[in-house]
Amino acid sequence: MTALIVLAVAAWVVLLASVAVSMVVVVRCNRRRYDALAERINIDARIGYLTTQTLAAMREAARDKRGW
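Now predict its structure.
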């Protein structure tokens, strides 16, 4: 009888450990996705800023050229 109780407790420990490991794997996977998304958004924002700067410089150059 004691052996069955010990076996049941061991089975519960293994089950809980496997659930914990699965949760850690899922959290890491989600974190990688969010990091990749944040990096993409950061790059898009930089490209937008550089595009705005480039267009402003082109307008300024066109104004300077017209003034001559």
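DSSP finds one helix and no strands in the chain.
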